[in-house]
Amino acid sequence: MQIDLNADLGEGFGAYRMGEDEALIGIISSANVACGFHAGDPLIMNNTAHATKAAGVDLGAHVGFPDLLGFGRRQMQVDPKELASYVVYQLGALAGMAAVAGHRLTHMSFHGALGNMAAADETLAEPLVAAVAAFDRDIIISSSSSQAIESAAARHGLRVATTFLADRAYDVNGLLVPRRMPNSVITDHDQVMLRLRQLLEDGSVTSYSGERIPMRTCSILLHGDTPGAAGMARDIRSEIERGGGEIVPISHLLN
Predict the structure, then answer these.
(1) What's phi and psi for 154, nearest 5 deg?
(2) Beta-carbon neighbour count of residue 249 at 10 Å?
(3) Cys-Cys link to 148, which of 1, 97, 125, 213 (CB 3.0-4.6 A)?
(4) d(Cα 104, Cα 126) in Å, to the nearest integer?
């Protein structure tokens, strides 16, 4: 089995650092980098593009709402056309950093509230995915399970890498449970590993309400700001490799 292991990186701002980016880059195969709207700044983006290039890690844009104070995790009501411009702006910013670093943008993902809203709403997913396609049809969309995003991507000829969020709870429809709900973010190491083993063994996950639901995925995501993320990523990688699996970048899986 080949599978991608990815994490959200570059989520500091100015002098403020977040997460364990240096350690994670040595463990993961793909990185989703904040592009300055919900986190990140030009210097952090530039440094992360160079670091991922040196490590052979795929580089992706992690695009979100313009919400630095809320880390992009607060819902915002913005005209979809305006949102599409935000998406293109962020893709372009990281693509520029990638070009200077001799790297390339292989994928993108929608961050936080923007991602959750697009995943659950076809009328929002459509213009956002169309914007990605207009920017570059070779970009892979990395997304949690979402019929809305997958259908829009199919219409626009884009590839989707469905990613399993090891540290987030799912509802019975395979959508992420809102962070405001208790236990929607799973920080317990043993629980994360149990969920991973279940996914690897039979391709399922136990939903927030207790049902066992199928989870078709080619990638596993860890949030870079989760406490102990590097240690958890290291354990996830070891678990996969002990079972004979191979960690490969997202672009190698969907080439």
Answers:
(1) -60, -40
(2) 24
(3) 125
(4) 25
Quote the pLDDT of residue 187: 83
Per the structure, the complete domain to which residue 177 belongs is given by 2-252
Question: What one-character-per-residue DSSP string does the chain give?
Answer: -EEEEEEEE---BTTB--S-HHHHHTT-SEEEEE-SSSS--HHHHHHHHHHHHHHT-EEEEEE--S-TTTTT-S-----HHHHHHHHHHHHHHHHHHHHHHT--EEEEEE-HHHHHHHHH-HHHHHHHHHHHHHH-TTPEEEESS-HHHHHHHHHTT--EEEEEETTB-B-TTSPBPPTTSTT-B---HHHHHHHHHHHHHHSEEE-TTS-EEE---SEEEE-TTSTTHHHHHHHHHHHHHHTT-EE--HHHHT-
Reported pTM:
0.93
Kindly state the average pLDDT of the residues 84-112. 98
Judged on CB neighbours under 10 Å (0-12, 13-18, 19+), 82 is: exposed
Side chain identity at residue 9, one-letter code:
L
Count CB-CB contacts under 10 A for residue 226.
21
Q: Which residues, 6 or more positions from 80, have their beta carbon under 8 angstroms from its beta carbon?
A: 123, 124, 127, 128
Please tell me the total count of domains within the chain.
1
Asked if residue 225 lies in contact with residue 9, where contact means CB atoms within 8 angstroms, the answer is no
Q: What are phi and psi of 90, to 5 degrees?
A: -70, -40
pLDDT at residue 95 greater than cutoff 90: yes
pLDDT at 229 over 90: no
Distance CA 44, CA 41 (A): 5
Supply the CATH number for residue 31's domain. Answer: 3.20.20.370
